[in-house]
Specification:
The chain is of the alpha/beta class and 433 residues long. It is 28% helix and 27% strand.
Length: 433
């Protein structure tokens, strides 16, 4: 085995095991061929900062909490997350629902404040930045302030479409970026609305493609330009399979397009990324929230998450972002949905559990560097594999064996050939010189 080559495997029974990669020069057809064809440039992996995660971490002993944070953000031994998300106001994993200005009629935003975030979100982010100072952050609201909506509630409803309200809401985004900058935290991107099709009992707000087009074109874009807000505006985070109703509607308008720097898709958005990338190949696309599971943190769902990663990456995204990095036992949201997390922090039992999806994310995030190029793969296994070429030239392959039996594969890359026997239902990383 070349000392520069590495193989890491994880399965339902064994996690993060180093395996021996057998270099082999036979002439049998390869199951997976790494070509020299470079595609999109990779920006990074990450997760979302949410209040319930930090509350659970804060209740742990200091050493245990520090180890969990290292496992997520440390570039040397952890997942090396470098592109993460935070909510603007309450998400459905806030301790309770809030916005940054709940004073009715405060169109001048005199009462705007991020003081609430200083309790749970800002400390969480600062701990991540200690470990990853180059981290990029993007933010999106689940709901505008209630007095800006009809009906005036966090869940359900729409933004009130008046000039005064729209100007104030655009400024609400600008103030968020400015106030976080005063906390020493740079917000790189603003995504206009979390899941604009979600008319839900958790904080939410409905938008059409025309709404987003007009708000970005006539209010948010001009506001950011006037206020010299450095954050990019992204069309996200879309939960629609309808490429024409959202991406096409917004990007077909030249002025709206001039303000949009990228598109964020999640959940049902997996059905639109291919068409969007084909239609707008010069517009970066991110996966902004992976599907959440049911709180049981099973290996089967972790394998499904790997299939999602493969789908998004091979269809053109430049980043992949997990949802709740840390949750307490049960993973229950404020509205009652138990969901998966990478890490379970259990203050009562004073322990930290690294769940299956922690390892699936780490299989790529720990090795793929920002600036890597996504590579085109060929062969029968390309449908469950992803490939990257890091800036230093090394190759990273993520390969899933979805079968319930061992699978012998042959890998071919420009500098060599190798044979590997994959465990049943396993995720594998190959680092190749």
């Amino acid at each position: 085995m070349n000392k520069n080559n590495l193989w890491i495997a994880s399965s339902a029974t064994r996690r993060w095991k180093k395996r021996t990669l057998i270099l082999k020069s036979d002439h049998q057809p390869a199951d997976l061929v790494v070509t020299r064809d470079a595609r999109q440039q990779w920006r990074g992996f990450g997760g979302c900062f949410n209040e319930l995660g930090w509350i659970a971490l804060s209740a742990l002993p200091a050493g245990m909490r520090s180890s969990a944070l290292d496992a997520l953000f440390d570039p040397a031994g952890g997942c090396a997350f470098n592109l993460c998300r935070l909510p603007i106001g309450a998400s459905d994993y806030a301790a309770d629902w809030y916005s940054h200005d709940e004073t009715p009629g405060d169109y001048s935003l005199k009462h705007f404040s991020v003081e609430r975030d200083r309790r749970h979100l800002i400390p969480y982010i600062r701990e991540a930045l200690k470990r990853r100072p180059d981290m990029e952050l993007f933010a999106s609201p689940w709901s505008p302030p209630t007095w800006m909506k009809d009906p005036p509630v966090y869940n359900y409803g729409r933004l009130i479409w008046t000039e005064r309200n729209l100007h104030a809401y655009a400024m609400y985004f600008a103030r968020f970026v400015q106030e976080y900058a005063r906390q020493g935290i740079r917000i790189s991107q603003i995504h206009v609305q979390n899941e604009p099709l979600a008319d839900q009992k958790f904080p939410s707000c409905l938008w059409t493609g025309e709404d987003l087009r007009d708000f970005i074109r006539d209010y948010l874009g001009p506001c950011f330009k006037r206020e010299r807000v450095a954050s990019e505006i992204w069309l996200g985070t879309l939960n629609t399979e309808d490429h024409y109703g959202y991406a096409h509607t917004v990007l077909s308008d030249p002025l709206a397009r001039s303000f949009v720097r990228g598109i964020g898709y999640q959940w049902a958005g997996k059905g639109a990324i291919q068409r969007t990338h084909m239609a707008w190949p010069d517009v970066p696309i991110m996966q902004t929230e992976n599907e959440c599971g049911d709180g049981r943190n099973s290996w089967d769902h972790a394998m499904y998450v790997f299939s999602l990663m493969q789908h998004y990456i091979t269809n053109g995204v430049v980043a992949y972002v997990y949802w709740n990095m840390v949750l307490p036992p049960g993973g229950r949201s404020t509205w009652g949905w138990p969901q998966n997390s990478m890490i379970t922090a259990d203050p009562e039992k004073r322990r930290v559990l690294y769940n299956p999806e922690f390892y699936v994310m780490k299989h790529l995030s720990a090795f793929v560097r920002p600036g890597a190029r996504v590579l085109r793969l060929e062969g029968p296994l390309c449908a469950m594999s992803v490939g990257f070429r890091n800036p230093d030239g090394c190759l990273i392959l993520g390969v899933g064996n979805m079968l319930s039996e061992r699978q012998t594969i042959r890998i071919e890359w420009p500098a060599g050939r190798a044979l590997a026997v994959l465990d049943p239902r396993s995720v594998n990383t190959f680092v190749l010189a």
